[in-house]
Amino acid sequence: MKNYKNLMAEILNRAVCLSALMIVLLAGSAMAQEETTPVPGNVGTGITGLYNGPFPSETQKELVGPYLLLKAGIVSEANSEITLPLYEGKLKDGRKVWYVLTDTSDEGNARALGLNYSAKLAYADGGKAVRTARIDKGNLVFDSGTVDFSPVMSLTPGAPQAFPPKAFQPGSMGDKDYSPLVRIVNAGGHIYNAPIIAFNVTADKISFPNGNVDHKILHDKVVRIDPAKSQVTFKLIAGFSFGRPVMYLSFDSNNPLAATLEESTLAPGLDDIKVGGDDGAFSAVERLFVFTNGPTGKGNPQRQGLNSAITDGGGPLNIFGGVPTIAGDYSPMWDLNLWTWTDAALKNHYDARMIEEFSILRLVQEGHLVGPDAKNKQYGSTGIIVNCPVVKRLL
């Protein structure tokens, strides 16, 4: 009886901790979005917002102003959500595969389907980084790759700093062959970003049109799903690209810790994508800049980084390299560059919020930002890849 009571107490304690963590993570997405959403142009003037002219992007998309990149979706900025078409495919053994499409190396079909165009995805095709599939009667039949969504995501903050965490567990795990990238062999050999969001379940089991999603059978970023209407809604994350606020999705990573922090799927196949090349020829990746020890404190306008994300309940406010309409070398496969402010930089209060790539590189060059390794402080790629399609540019 004593062992039974101890077991029930442990189960209850874990459930309470997980509920608290999910509340913090969901609140953090809204908090981060509020921090990066542009304020009305009439602030500090004697006129109403009605007098402000349209953003230049409403005339020409390449100019500044709000611009929807992933046109396949419907975005709710107020809720930090996007609703995308839901696709039903299958493995060649018949098991169901539920997935979405976000990016492709096919420029024409990117325009036709409202996806992000990424020429760089063509260079990802090596090893297990790209699976193969065939179109059969209008949908995809995949040759390999499965995902187990039954694990319960968990994260225990470290001490005295929250990052790195003491313990962590991703909420979904791909098998050794899983990658979100797929080459369609009987349709020109183009590559698509097609992350799996549910696997080997029927439509009635994943129908949650009003929320209260069962994340033991669905991706942790899903907030609503309606197979009858072929649509699924995801939580968005806020970040920056060259000084402009952006909204993005996060689906997969090749690293268990990154997959946990991003509420995404562990995708071992992504290990076969070469990192460290960024803007060089035949690179499949773009750089993503992430701080470990940026400013903290909920309500602090300078807060940023993984310590803040874990302790303050806000997003990490990561900085992206090129995104569509800002640069031509966009890729949803982001090569994670992890940064740490030096003790001297912290002492001199240099640790302000960073929002664009070249300011960061300058601080690295001057020695104020270093890699997180205690023995080797050299800055560079961590080898971690995160699959984060960019959805919307807010400025």
Query: Could you tell me the mean pLDDT?
Result: 91
- Overall, the morphology is globular
Please give the alpha-carbon distance between the first and last residues. Answer: 61 Å
Tally of DSSP β-strands? 28
Class of secondary structure makeup = alpha+beta
Per DSSP, the total helix count is: 6
Helix content: 10-25%
C-alpha-based Rg, rounded: 21 Å
Characterise this structure.
The N and C termini lie far apart (61 Å). By secondary structure, the chain is α+β, with helices and mostly antiparallel strands. The protein is 17% helix and 28% strand. The radius of gyration is 21 Å and the shape is globular. The chain has one domain. The strands form four sheets. Strands 1, 10, 13, 19, 20, 21, 22, 23, 24, 25, 26, 27 and 28 form a 13-stranded mixed beta sheet that branches. The model has no long low-confidence stretch (mean pLDDT 91).
Entry summary:
The protein is an alpha+beta fold and 395 residues long. It is 17% helix and 28% strand.
